[in-house]
């Protein structure tokens, strides 16, 4: 049994931020820290006081974390970035509102005395004496202290205070991982109620010392539990009241939700998994449809989460294709109009979206990556809508003339036609498409053709495929490449417009150039030749895509499985430690690294232009090392230079590390390994939330059986399957109740809104 904690974070936007630049504006971005460890950095939005980010993240983190902090920063090219303000959410606050936070909250000032981090290692004991007891406090070492000096370190010392007496350790120069091994003694009076305060400071020669954190020890508790030794988390000074500053630093709109799950052993979930898998294997020929019942009882708000959990569960069981095929049949059975097929946010649509992101993201990168990079690099002005054309000057110096609207429209059309190479690249990518994706589209194509036969519906199977491939996968990735990890930063306004027009062209092709799609935006007419050509290419591509037999599917899947997929790839700068003097650009060497589940390798030239930030690399390394039994519990964050480590000044090169290995905070990515037990737990949690509705349906079916009637629609589950499911839920509830952590918390009734 293990407790899993995850944090859903959506950083929406900011407003009324203060100007930090001489231009009267700012270049804001956000940094998210979990217990002072940076895990997320958003894109920078240039020259604005009301930035929009719209970035979503899922973070897996240890259940013992304390706080999540959001820092709004102003990026500066020539100096240190400015801190605008922060929002801090303690774990207890998040845990007390499992539905999460949503809304605007004021940024508060960043107080240096509150920005503490790290831990201190203490040994505490009360020793009996002839006249009075003595309190002995041994200050051993500290780790991960905040760097306060320009050299990226601190000069820490410890001040121990008790009942008006103060004693101090020696100063350790240039270290955030100091070692003191000094002991102090204080005389205790009988029945003493005072506290022992251990403060850590950064020593400065000319300015006042900087506060690094403190630990407060209850003497009465120590006398009962003595002796005590361990690592103590450094705490800040008490938060100062800043009500008069509220609103002066602007506001941040956030959505934050913490989810704690107690995951039972795999054997506990087997009855639930086997029951659901049995239903999927039987398909529409089975006696009942629990999958249909799950869709019926799932609200719109949580349908995406349920679809993703079910998809991952069946993907791990090798039944993703069968699960999606069942959903296709269920939706087709209740659809009579072809123009509404797979256009709603049904369980089939949401599950297929998740499936393409999990199974097809690498394929999307291979097809879209070169085109997206070209659009970002060219930064051309592109506009087809005459009402939005901006006329600009063209020509040589001294001979400028206004560019006509017709010239802008023609140049824009030419640029977009050139980017139409995307459709050609797509048509050539049949063999690169994962076998399980091809097989799933084959099932979709066949089911739709069976449901809507005849010449008048010739294009319907093609449109069904493109409704997912183009409209729900490729087009969103073109419009928001950062959200699909195609680019590190959001596009500027000009590039965004180019991407939007390109996505519209892909959508028109995906709609098979129907009259309805042409009538919506007549100004897209200059691209009609490209769209018509793209329709022919796309139909030929889909015909080849779905032409895969069972044997070919297995052979192709076996070939692809032999190649370890990259978890992360991109450029990193390696510091050359042999150089002297300040760290100049010449002190670094640029190499391109490739991390797979089997190895970490590098080369001098890239195979792709994907740029990965440090926290993404750390997250990827932690994931592939999660089952590494030889993973060290500590390490040295510095380098061994001369005769000692630069971080803690330890002279033994092979000595124990001075900082603990952080392996628990990771960012959720599309290519994460499947966690079958967690997905089963999440499905159980959802079913527990709709258990009352399931029991109501069970009673309806029982009354129908007594009256001699049978369920009228194929989507209704019979009594025995539903009764089995209810028994499984009861068994899982009892398993949770008997676990040390007790039963899972019930879902709250409301969402806590942040202050506006």
TrEMBL record:
**UniProt entry keywords in alphabetical sequence:** GTPase activation, Metal-binding, Repeat, Zinc, Zinc-finger
Organism of this sequence: Macaca fascicularis (Crab-eating macaque)
An example molecular function term from Gene Ontology annotations = zinc ion binding
Q: Name one GO biological process term.
A: intracellular signal transduction
The record's listing under Gene3D superfamilies reads:
C2 domain (2.60.40.150), GTPase Activation - p120gap, domain 1 (1.10.506.10), Pleckstrin-homology domain (PH domain)/Phosphotyrosine-binding domain (PTB) (2.30.29.30)
Q: What are the boundaries of the region Disordered?
A: 733-756
CDD domains per record: C2A_Rasal1_RasA4, C2B_RasA1_RasA4, RasGAP_RASA4
Q: Provide an example Pfam family for this protein.
A: RasGAP
* Domain Ras-GAP, chain residue ranges per copy: 302-511
Q: Which residues form a coiled coil?
A: none
Ranges for domain C2: 1-105, 116-232
Q: What is this protein called?
A: Ras GTPase-activating protein 4
């Amino acid at each position: 049994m293990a407790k899993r904690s995850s944090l859903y974070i959506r950083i929406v936007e900011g407003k009324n931020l203060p100007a930090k630049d001489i231009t009267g504006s700012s270049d804001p971005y956000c940094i998210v820290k979990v217990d002072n460890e940076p895990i997320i950095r958003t894109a920078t939005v240039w020259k604005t006081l009301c930035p929009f980010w719209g970035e979503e993240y899922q973070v897996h983190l240890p259940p013992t974390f304390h706080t999540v902090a959001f820092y709004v920063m102003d990026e500066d090219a020539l100096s240190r970035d400015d801190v605008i303000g922060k929002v801090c959410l303690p774990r207890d606050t998040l845990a007390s509102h499992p539905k999460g936070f949503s809304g605007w909250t004021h940024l508060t000032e960043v107080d240096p005395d509150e920005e503490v981090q790290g831990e201190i290692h203490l040994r505490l004991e009360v020793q009996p004496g002839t006249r009075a007891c003595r309190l002995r406090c041994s200050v051993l070492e500290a780790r991960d202290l905040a760097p306060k000096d320009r050299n990226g370190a601190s000069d820490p010392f410890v001040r121990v205070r008790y009942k008006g007496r103060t004693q101090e350790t020696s100063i350790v120069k240039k270290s955030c991982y100091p070692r003191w091994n000094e002991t102090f003694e204080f005389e205790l009076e009988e029945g003493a109620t005072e506290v022992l305060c251990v403060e850590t400071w950064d020593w400065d020669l000319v300015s006042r010392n900087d506060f690094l954190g403190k630990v407060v020890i209850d003497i009465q508790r120590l006398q009962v539990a003595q002796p005590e030794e361990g690592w103590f988390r450094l705490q800040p000074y008490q938060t100062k009241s800043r009500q008069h500053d509220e609103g002066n630093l602007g506001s941040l709109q956030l959505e934050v939700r913490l989810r704690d799950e107690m995951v039972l052993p795999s054997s506990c979930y087997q009855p639930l998994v086997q029951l659901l898998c049995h239903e999927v294997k039987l398909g529409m020929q089975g006696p009942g449809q629990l999958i249909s019942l799950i869709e019926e009882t799932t609200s719109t708000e949580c349908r995406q989460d349920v679809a993703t959990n079910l998809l991952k569960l069946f993907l791990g069981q090798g039944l993703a294709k069968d699960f999606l095929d069942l959903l296709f049949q269920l939706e087709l059975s209740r659809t009579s109009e072809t123009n509404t097929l797979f256009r709603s946010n049904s369980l089939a649509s949401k599950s297929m979206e998740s499936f393409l992101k999990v199974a097809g993201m690498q394929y999307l990168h291979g097809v879209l990556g070169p085109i997206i990079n070209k659009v970002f690099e060219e930064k051309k002005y592109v506009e087809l809508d005459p009402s939005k054309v901006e006329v600009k000057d063209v020509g040589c110096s001294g001979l400028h003339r206004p560019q006509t609207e017709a010239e802008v429209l023609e140049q824009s059309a030419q640029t977009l036609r050139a980017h139409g190479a995307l459709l050609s690249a797509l048509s050539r990518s049949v063999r690169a498409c994962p076998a399980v994706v091809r097989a799933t589209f084959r099932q979709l194509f066949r089911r739709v053709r069976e449901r809507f036969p005849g010449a008048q519906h010739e294009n319907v199977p093609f449109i069904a495929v493109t409704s997912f491939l183009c409209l729900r996968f490729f087009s969103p990735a073109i419009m928001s490449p950062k959200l699909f990890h195609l680019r590190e930063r959001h596009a500027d306004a000009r590039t965004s417009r180019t991407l939007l027009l390109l996505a519209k062209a892909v959508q028109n092709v995906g709609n098979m150039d129907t009259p309805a799609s042409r009538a919506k935006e007549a100004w897209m007419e200059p691209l009609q030749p490209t769209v018509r050509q793209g329709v022919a290419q796309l139909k030929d591509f889909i015909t080849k895509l779905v032409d895969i037999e069972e044997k070919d599917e297995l052979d192709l899947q076996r070939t692809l499985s032999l190649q370890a997929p990259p978890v992360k790839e991109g450029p990193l700068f390696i510091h050359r430690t042999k150089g002297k003097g300040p760290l100049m650009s010449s002190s670094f060497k640029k190499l391109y690294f490739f991390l797979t589940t089997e190895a970490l390798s590098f080369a001098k030239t890239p195979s792709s232009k994907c740029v990965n930030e440090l926290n993404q690399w750390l997250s990827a390394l932690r994931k592939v090392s999660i089952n590494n039994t030889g993973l060290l519990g500590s390490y040295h964050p510095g380098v061994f230079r001369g005769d000692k480590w630069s971080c803690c000044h330890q002279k033994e090169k092979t000595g124990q590390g001075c900082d603990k290995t952080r392996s628990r905070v990771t960012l959720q990515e599309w290519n994460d390994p499947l966690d079958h037990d967690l997905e089963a737990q999440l499905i159980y949690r959802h079913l527990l939330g709709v258990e009352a509705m399931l029991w109501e349906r069970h009673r309806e079916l029982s009354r129908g059986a007594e009256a001699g009637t049978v369920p009228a629609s194929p989507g209704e589950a019979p009594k025995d399957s539903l009764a089995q499911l209810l028994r499984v839920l009861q068994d899982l509830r009892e398993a949770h109740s008997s676990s040390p952590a007790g039963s899972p918390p019930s879902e709250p009734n409301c969402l806590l809104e942040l202050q506006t």
